[in-house]
């Protein structure tokens, strides 16, 4: 099982086999499995900062939930946009690229798992832990964008309007993922706070909170 998962991850990163660029059937099951396994593994490590097993479990569940739910929320809008742009015939290839990119984010996070554990072993600063995970998520996102670029290259070559679709996807996904990440807090678990799946103020709006804080600085 481990060897098969490693081989699947390698095929994904190299865009070969079932994960090759093209218009064939999208391997949704395999991509979902990679996202779930890799995301859960990194999430468990992410939640290990304060050494609380329940937080590890919660964070392990929440990382793949963040990636999967953000994608699921955005896909209907993305499908309509592609249809309006006259790109519906290419949507299977587009979907392959989007889902492959999300799975790549999870695979890269798994590769960075030793780094987050090293950071935790090197400091007891919660702020440092938050910063480190933020940087690692940014690196994983860049890896996902690399995969998305690879899948979109032939699409853009065949129809330049795919550039609009790609930019719209990135903007929409980032907007949704930020809010969903806010709702799913805590991921790391601040020392001194009780372990819970969601915080009491989970259903607030990230953008409203940030705007209020910025206005409060004036």
What do these coordinates show?
The protein has eight helices and no strands. Helix 2 (28-46) packs parallel to helix 4, helix 3 runs antiparallel to helix 4 (91-111) and helix 4 runs antiparallel to helix 6 (126-158). The mean pLDDT is 93. The protein has helices at 2-14, 28-46, 53-84, 91-111, 113-122, 126-158, 162-183, 206-216. It has one domain (1-14, 24-215). The longest helix has 33 residues, at 126-158. The protein has 218 residues and is an all-alpha fold.
Sum up the structure in keywords.
mainly alpha, 8 helices, 218 residues, transmembrane
Short structural description:
With about 220 residues, the protein is mainly α. The protein is built from eight helices and no strands.
Write the layout of secondary structure elements.
Layout: H1 2-14, H2 28-46, H3 53-84, H4 91-111, H5 113-122, H6 126-158, H7 162-183, H8 206-216
Organism: Rohdeia mirabilis
Protein name: Actin-binding WH2 domain-containing protein
Keywords: Membrane, Transmembrane, Transmembrane helix
So what's the overall shape? globular
Number of helices: 8
User: What is the CA–CA distance across the termini?
Assistant: 56 Å
Instruction: Supply the helix-strand structural class.
Output: mainly alpha
What is Rg?
A: 18 Å
- pLDDT < 50 stretches: none
Determine the mean pLDDT: 93
- Domain tally: 1
Reading the helices and strands in chain order gives: HHHHHHHH
């Amino acid at each position: 099982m481990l060897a098969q998962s490693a081989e699947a991850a390698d095929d994904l990163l190299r865009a070969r086999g079932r994960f090759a660029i093209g218009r064939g059937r999208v391997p949704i099951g395999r991509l979902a499995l990679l996202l779930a396994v890799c995301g859960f593994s990194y999430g468990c490590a992410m939640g290990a900062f304060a050494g609380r097993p329940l937080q590890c479990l919660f964070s392990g569940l929440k990382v793949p939930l963040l990636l999967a739910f953000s994608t699921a929320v955005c896909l209907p809008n993305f499908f309509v946009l592609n249809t309006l742009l006259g790109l519906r015939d290419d949507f299977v290839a587009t979907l392959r690229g989007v889902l492959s990119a999300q799975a790549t984010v999870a695979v890269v996070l798994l590769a960075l798992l030793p780094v987050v554990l090293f950071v935790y072993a090197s400091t007891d600063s919660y702020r440092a832990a938050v910063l480190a995970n933020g940087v690692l998520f940014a690196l994983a996102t860049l890896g996902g964008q690399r995969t998305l670029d690879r899948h979109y290259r032939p699409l853009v070559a065949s129809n330049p309007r795919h550039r609009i679709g790609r930019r719209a996807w990135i903007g929409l996904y980032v907007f949704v993922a930020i809010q969903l990440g806010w709702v799913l807090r805590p991921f790391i678990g601040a020392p001194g706070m009780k372990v819970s799946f969601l915080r009491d103020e989970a259903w607030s709006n990230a953008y409203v909170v940030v705007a209020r804080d910025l206005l409060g600085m004036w």
